[in-house]
């Protein structure tokens, strides 16, 4: 009777151990299945370093397109010219213009920024050079050669090709800001003080000032000469 009672008391313990062992065995089986699946997937899809090869091909293509650029901006062979806008009306356009400005600012190179929102003559100039009625911004010329827009500049920067092309471009001192315009590239007209009206002494009439643009501004002579 005592042995039977003892066996009945220990039976649940044995059952719990057996159930624990079976659960543990199932966990091991699942782990082994996952490990075998991972190992087979690693063998089936090996890791391939595509980034360097893509960078090399992109770099060579950028160099080729730069050297063979047929669109030129006369008189700018010694500088970088960026046509952009400072208006935030179209968010994507403004962000692209700002990104290109920051990339060149990181190299501390002197940039001839031509803001079409500050002077409509720049827009006409760009349309004439590209021979297009509708142009997207920004547009970049380096050493007189047409490069492209924001996507091209970003790609060239990522693969390291932009730094090579900028070799020989004058650099700015760290923290330098134009004392004439504060890097705004424009100053109020000295002839009409930005009013766009000037008095003609010969005819004794108030006429449109011929020295400034439609916004009463002129290019800063200190940084845009």
Automatic annotation (TrEMBL):
Gene3D superfamilies: Glutaredoxin. Coiled coil: none annotated. Residues 81-147 form the Glutaredoxin domain. Pfam families: Glutaredoxin, GRXCR1-2_C. This is Glutaredoxin domain-containing protein. It comes from Hibiscus trionum.
């Amino acid at each position: 009777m005592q042995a039977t009672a003892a066996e009945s008391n220990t039976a649940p313990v044995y059952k719990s151990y057996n159930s624990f062992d079976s659960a543990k065995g199932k966990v091991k089986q699942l782990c082994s299945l996952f490990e075998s699946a991972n190992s087979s997937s690693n063998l089936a899809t090996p890791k391939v370093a595509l980034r360097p090869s893509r960078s090399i091909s992109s770099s060579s293509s950028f160099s080729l397109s730069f050297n063979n650029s047929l669109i030129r901006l006369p008189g700018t062979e010694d500088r970088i010219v960026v046509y952009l806008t400072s208006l935030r009306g179209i968010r994507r356009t403004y962000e692209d213009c700002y990104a290109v400005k920051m990339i060149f600012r990181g190299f501390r190179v002197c940039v001839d920024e031509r803001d079409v929102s500050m002077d409509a003559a720049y827009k006409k100039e760009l349309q004439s050079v590209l021979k297009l009625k509708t142009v997207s911004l920004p547009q970049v010329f380096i050493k007189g050669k047409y490069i492209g827009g924001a996507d091209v500049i970003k790609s060239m920067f990522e693969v390291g090709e932009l730094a090579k092309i900028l070799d020989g471009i004058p650099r700015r001192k760290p923290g330098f800001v134009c004392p004439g315009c504060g890097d705004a590239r424009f100053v109020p007209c000295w002839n009409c003080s930005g009013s766009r009206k000037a008095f003609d002494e010969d005819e004794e009439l108030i006429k449109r000032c011929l020295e400034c643009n439609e916004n009463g501004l002129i290019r800063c002579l200190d940084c845009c000469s």
